[in-house]
Amino acid sequence: MNPARDIPARDIPARSYLVTHVTDYSYDDTVTSSYGRCHLTPQDLPGQRVLETEVTIDPHPDDRSTGIDVFGNVDTYFHVRTPHTRLTVTARTRVDVDPLDPALVTGGAALRPWESARPTARAGGSDALAVEFVLDLTPPEITDAVRAYAAPTFRPGRPLIDVVTELTTRINTDFTYRSGSTAISTRVDTVMDRREGVCQDFARVAIACLRSQGLAARYVSGYLATDPPPGRDRMVGADASHAWAAVWLPGGTWLPFDPTNDKLVDERHVTVAWGRDYDDVPPLRGVIYTDSRRSKIDVSVDVAPVSPT
């Protein structure tokens, strides 16, 4: 990836989308009680404006609440007590997304040596908050294989933006995208060994590499607007949830990058939530009470371009 190529032009307009995410569960016996927690509402951020948003649940929940989690994400809880054999959760959001702020790429923090971006609890403020994103997970993800893979990129004194863009390109080049090759529970060390996975795996490899060097990195969930091949119509529902990573910059900003597509995050990415790992921000997680032995889940995501407001 060429950093200069990825610096966004100032005259690129914002893009507007209607994002529809439908999750449909079906069971072979009656569910008497269903608890769920969703991270399906995109963030209202500098560079991203949520104009309209709603999450609907069918059957209608008996209890429901929407709040802000510890990382600042919007989450929705629900409890359905109506007996059912099918549960559908639909999230619809109208959102405007700006191009990446060029200052994140050309500003002082990104151009300084990467070692200067290590946060310390002693500094207070945004540094202290970022320290949590340096810590390894349990079980550990920072292994000898991760350290060895990161080492060639993290040469002393290199500008942080050069380190991030090179790491992004290396992961994109060295790992093969293969749908179904991993599961949510697949460890980073397994991905390193197999050299294949999907977007969340590549984001987690990048995060482990950054943390292995004392940098703060977070896992970001969201959506990617995909354009149809030349001469083909858009297929409604053909999009998917996406994941990428972001590295902390001194001053409290974060530089997001997408190893799956070898690029910095731009106006085609819709940010939903972030945390230390996927487990902090799954789109939907829950518990059911049932005698059902089989269930099926169908997920449809559509990121449809719409006229700007």
TrEMBL record:
Keyword ATP-binding included in the entry's annotation: no
Protein name per Swiss-Prot or TrEMBL: Transglutaminase-like enzyme, putative cysteine protease
Organism in which the protein naturally occurs: Williamsia sterculiae
Biological-process GO terms, alphabetical: proteolysis
Lineage, highest ranks first: Bacteria, Bacillati, Actinomycetota, Actinomycetes, Mycobacteriales
Superkingdom in the source lineage: Bacteria
Domain Transglutaminase-like residues, every copy: 191-261
Keyword terms of this UniProt record: Hydrolase, Protease
GO molecular function: peptidase activity
